[in-house]
Amino acid sequence: MRTTLTKDDVTSVLGPIEEATVAEIIATGASADELREAWAWLNGDEALMSEGRPLPGTRVAALIDLLEPEDEE
Asked: What is each CA distance from 25 to 2, 8, 47, 52, in whole angstroms?
């Protein structure tokens, strides 16, 4: 059973982050497991791919987009 993320769920995975980002993450409707998976992909995608893990699903991919740092040019 999937439950809605809370601010505590988000900060337990990501640490302290901006309130606006917390709200965006909660608005995706993702579960805590999906948030943990997105964080894992963002911080070690090569390791996950070599484990044979499937590519992230749509909601996880959306979370990765929210969490990925902006490229500075």
From this structure: 15, 12, 24, 27
